[in-house]
Recover the amino acids of this structure.
């Protein structure tokens, strides 16, 4: 027996469909509902198929109603899907609320390398005392690195600086271009190009052909200092470097000068500071001597002055040179110089 197909039947199916749609509350239930009503053998589809058995008049009326029902039901489905999505979102907003007062995620911030920081600190100490900061070439002629500094070819003092040569040997088996082994060549370059008075410091990289160990790198940084004028004495050297030591290592620092040899100074000295760790009692930092050697210095050798065209009878001067890594190691208590260039952020980000 076939059920009578009328506008009423259409309305009943529609009503039931809406009631069921209302209680479908997840994706699976919605899909099930769609198949049941709008699918290929769904109820609305079946109604439409049954139209063929009706009188033309009735078919027109019931057909229109069925098509309309199909339209509103598929609109209803869309609305229901959207409503469920909105509800889901609202639920998330309730449970996953954002606390705008929480601190934000910190953006990673860069910083200066500890050696750059130390170099700047050294520069500031000398700039405050009237020194000018100058830089020079890292690839240098042996003329400036040695000859002009009173270290002629074949002089055994060249062995004090293990050299990396960068050019090929000439016919005589000699080489002349090198990576500077110290910043001292800038003493000659600056004096050659300037008339006294001279008051400069020269920070920069230097290179030595040697094996690395906790206290030696094959590349490192120095700060050179040079002051030349009429009447400059060893007392000026001591006063200037004493002031530097107090600025960088603390007000209460004591300094000690001892004789040392560098071919380009006469007399030559080295300067130590009293150990800031043990205050001079002796500890592992100062090698149980109470003193820490921090730089080499001296009065500019007359041969160096006349070599650049200065009259050594008229002018005198002092020069000094220090290793920046060594100063940083002492300041921060670092026991291996290689840490500075290992590019390990766990180390570098501590400064
Ligand atoms: N250039 C020397 C070195 O590298 C240091 C120094 C500079 C000593 C100036 C005296 C005067 O060892």
């Amino acid at each position: 027996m076939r059920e009578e197909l009328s506008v009423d039947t259409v309305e009943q199916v529609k009503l039931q469909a809406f009631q069921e749609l209302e209680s479908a509350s997840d994706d699976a239930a919605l899909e099930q509902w769609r198949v049941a009503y709008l699918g290929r053998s769904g109820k609305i589809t079946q109604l439409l198929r049954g139209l063929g058995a009706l009188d033309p008049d009735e078919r027109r009326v019931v057909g229109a109603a069925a098509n309309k029902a199909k339209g509103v039901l598929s609109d209803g489905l869309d609305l229901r899907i959207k409503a469920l999505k909105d509800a889901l979102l609202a639920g998330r907003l309730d449970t996953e609320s954002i606390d705008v007062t929480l601190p934000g995620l910190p953006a990673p911030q860069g910083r200066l390398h500890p050696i750059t920081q130390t170099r700047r600190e050294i520069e500031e100490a000398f700039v405050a005392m009237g020194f000018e900061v100058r830089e020079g070439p890292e690839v240098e002629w042996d003329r400036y690195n040695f000859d002009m500094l009173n270290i002629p070819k074949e002089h055994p003092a060249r062995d004090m600086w293990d050299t990396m040569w960068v050019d090929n040997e000439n016919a005589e088996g000699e080489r002349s271009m090198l990576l500077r082994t110290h910043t001292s060549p800038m003493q000659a370059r600056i004096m050659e190009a300037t008339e006294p008075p001279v008051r400069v410091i020269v920070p920069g990289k230097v290179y030595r052909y040697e094996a690395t160990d906790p206290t030696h790198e094959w590349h490192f940084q120095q700060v050179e200092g040079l002051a030349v004028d009429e009447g400059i004495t060893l007392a000026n050297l001591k006063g200037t470097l004493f002031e530097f030591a107090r600025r960088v290592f603390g007000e209460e620092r004591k300094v000690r000068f001892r004789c040392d040899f560098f071919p380009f100074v006469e007399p030559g000295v080295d300067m130590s500071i009293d150990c800031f760790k043990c205050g001079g009692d002796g500890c592992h930092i100062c090698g149980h001597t109470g003193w820490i050697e921090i730089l080499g210095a001296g009065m500019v050798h007359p041969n160096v002055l006349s070599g650049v065209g200065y009259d050594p009878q008229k002018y005198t001067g002092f020069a000094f040179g220090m290793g920046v890594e060594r100063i940083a190691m002492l300041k921060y208590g670092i026991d291996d110089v290689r840490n500075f260039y290992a590019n390990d952020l766990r180390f570098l980000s501590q400064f």
Notes: The pocket of phenylalanine is lined by residues 182, 184, 224, 262, 265, 296-298, 319-321 (CB under 6 Å). The mean pLDDT is 91.
